[in-house]
Amino acid sequence: MDNKMGNQQVTQTDLAWLAGIWDGEGHFSIRRTVVKNNAPQYSPRLGVTNSNVQILTRVREILDALEIGYYFREKDQGGFEGSHKQTWLVAVETMVNAVKVIAAIRPYLVGKCFQADCIMEYCTRRIKAFDRTKGNKSRKYTAEDFDLVMKVYQANGDIRGTSETIRQDAQRAMI
Questions:
Q1: Environment class of 157 (CB within 10 Å of its CB; exposed 0-12, middle 13-18, buried 19+)
Q2: Which of 86, 84, 60, 83 is nearest to 71 (CA)?
Q3: Which of 38, 42, 103 minimizes the C-alpha distance to 67?
Q4: Can you tell me the distance from the alpha carbon of 38 to that of 129, in angstroms, rounded to the nearest whole number?
Q5: What share of the chain is helix, strand, coil (3-state, %, to 5)?
Q6: Is the pTM of the predicted complex or chain greater than 0.70?
Q7: Which domains does the chain have, with CATH numbers?
Q8: pLDDT tens string 85-119
């Protein structure tokens, strides 16, 4: 199945390649930020970090052809401690665009299917819950939302101990 967007075509081969890059060089995560009144906010963050600009250029071409918004930025030198290579990041950070990315590459993912599925469910739930007339007040988090966030953190190794913070946020939200 080929998707035709604008003048560019995205083939199954392109989507399989993109899934392979995301599986090997990318991440599917949910970022916790604190907004007004110390309220936590959880947003998807799908990204690919690499030192090879040609790879990231191809990622960007496919995302452009699929009409998926992203940002591209130079990272500090080194993708890890001790590395001096220059790296760049392509990141998708909105719910609508995260859903588009996952829908496009999910059939071809191998290693990060669980995280992708949890984020897809999380974003779909959050998008459905939004009411434009009520704004962000319509986006109260549910126990199911927190459960999905927790699953993603745990699947990614929870190296910063964020699960405890999520539990505390969930308890406060349920009061």
A1: exposed
A2: 60
A3: 103
A4: 22
A5: 50, 20, 25
A6: yes
A7: 3-174 (3.10.28.10)
A8: 788 999 999 999 999 999 999 999 999 999 999 99
Which residues in 94-117 are b (16+ Cβ under 10 Å) and which e? bbebbbbbbebbeebbeebbebbb
54, 78 in Cβ contact below 8 A? no
**d(Cα 19, Cα 135) in Å, to the nearest integer?**
34
Residues 6+ apart with CB under 8 A from 59: 18, 21, 48, 90
Contacting residues for 137 by C-beta, under 8 A, at least 6 apart: none
- Type of residue at 1: M
CB atoms within 10 A of CB 66: 21
Question: pLDDT at residue 161 above 90?
Answer: no
Alpha-helix runs per DSSP H in 26-161: 53-65, 95-105, 113-129, 143-155
